[in-house]
Each structure stands twice: as structure tokens, then as C-alpha cells.
Amino acid sequence: MLRVEDLDGPRTKAGAAEEAVADLRWLGLDWDGEVLYQAQRSEAYERALQRLRAGGMMYPCACTRKEIDVARSAPNEGQASARYPGTCRPPLGVEPQVAGPDSAWRFRVPLGRELSFPDEVRGLEREVPAETEGDFVVAKKTGEAAYQLAVVVDDAHQGISHVIRGDDLVPSTHLQLLLYEALGLEVPAFAHLPLVRGEDGRRLAKRHGDTRIATYREAGVPPERVLGLLGAWSGLCEREPVSLEALVEAWGWDRLPSEDVTCGREADAWLRGSH
Fold first, then answer.
1. Under CATH, to which class is 196-271 assigned?
2. For residues 205 and 168, what is the distance between their CA atoms, to the nearest angstrom?
3. If we measure between CA atoms, which residue out of 229, 224, 218 comes closest to residue 269?
4. pLDDT grade, residue 207 (50/70/90)?
């Protein structure tokens, strides 16, 4: 399935979705059905929010990000957000305050409850979300659905059986487990992969230069070379040009690395055929 998660308002870059589609096709990857754009799914998210609201599982919150950061230091990599201190959380049995125009909506995380799930790569994961993340946003101040809610609703809508993503999202998985349960949805299997990092040890991003697949495509790098680098990082082959079919044949959960990988000047040189 191909899903475009384009709910991030001003941060959604024009043309990014089209570039991602072109990258996938160039690598030989395809998908079933129509592309799903979250920006077109507002009615489905609103129905989910109404269900949470009717069950008393969320409440309005007027706190700003700055106020939350002051209450607790900014989150480390891997945390879904700075832990919310519960400033606007009403006591159980008390009607929440009326939502104002600058209010977001937060999910009421059960206090003291430990959640766990078997990860295909990392093994059993455990966490007490109330202690690590706290009550989290399910609807933004703009009224738009937040990431945690939208992906859960869409996983169910698309019949997703396995969620495979970076291990920086492990904390988000515990929050999403609460939403699957609250909305009565089937929980998929999860696998969290090590990250690709720059030479400075930070998650690969624009700060490390232009490492977009489109950049290498436009430079004349063959797709088999990009697949060879990805395959080597994934423990599926030696670093050499390889076909997509060969990677599929070599696939296995037990071959995936447990440590992050580095993308730097040496990898760039290899892709461009100068090393």
C-alpha cells in the first residue's frame, strides 16, 4: 500500500509526494490499489474523534508547546513528544472544560498501565506510556487529525497486517496500541528497523546534504546501485549492484542488522561509481 501522510500543514512540501512516487517506480517498487492521501480523509478521522469523545477518552488542551517544554526538558530522539504534565487533564468523572478556539484534543492515557508488543526485529518491547509520553494529541488546534490518530485509522482502513518503520517510532507504537484498543480496531504486527545516520551520528536529514534518491537518479546512478547499497545495509547482500528480485529472494527478518548504519561521503562515492 502507498499512503501519503500529508497532514503536517505548512511543513508539507509541494511536490514531495510526486517525487516519492517517482523514486519508488524508478527502484521498481509498486503497490496495490490507489494512493491514499491523508489530507482527503478528514471525515474518517472525525468519526474516530467523535467515538473517543463520546467515550470520555479525550479532552481539550490549550497548553502551548513552549509551556510543555518548560514543564519538562525537550524530548530525546525516539520519544514521540515531550511528556505532557497533565495540566488540562480533568479528574475522572469530571466533565472536561469547553474547547476553545486554540484548544487541541488529547487522549487520556491510563495511569500506571504497562503496554507491550512483540517486535519482529527488536523482540519484546515494554513501556508505561503515562510515565514516558503522557496524554498525547489526537486532534490539533487547527481541528486537523494528529499523526497518531490518522495512522491508526488508516491502518485499519487499508487492512495493514505489518507496520515496518524506523525504531525512532517505538514510543509512538505504544500510544497507537491504546488507540487501536479504544477504537476497537485490529492491531497489526510491528517491526522497527535501525536508522540510517549521517557521519555525525544524527538521523540522516537535510542537514547532511542532498541525499535524496531523486538526486542520484538525476545524476545517472542506476537503480541497481541504490538497491545494492540498501540491500547491504539490510544484511541481504554484498555491496554491489543488485536487482529487486534478488533482494526479495534474499529477504529474512533474521538477516537485518541490529545497529544503525552510516551514510556519508564513502557511501556517496560508491553510489556515484567513484569508489
1. mainly alpha
2. 14
3. 229
4. confident
Prediction pTM value: 0.88
Nearest 5 degrees, angle CA 174-CA 177-CA 180? 160
Distance from CA of residue 29 to its chain's centroid? 20
Q: Give residue 75's pLDDT.
A: 44
CA-based nearest residue to 111, from 138, 78, 148, 86: 86
The fold of the 41-193 domain, in CATH, is Rossmann fold (3.40.50)
How far, in Å, CA of 64 to CA of 102, rounded? 9
C-alpha cell at 145: 487529525
The three-class DSSP label of residue 162 is strand
Percentage of residues in the chain with pLDDT exceeding 70?
89
Angstrom distance (rounded) from CA 129 to CA 85: 12
230, three cell numbers: 540498501
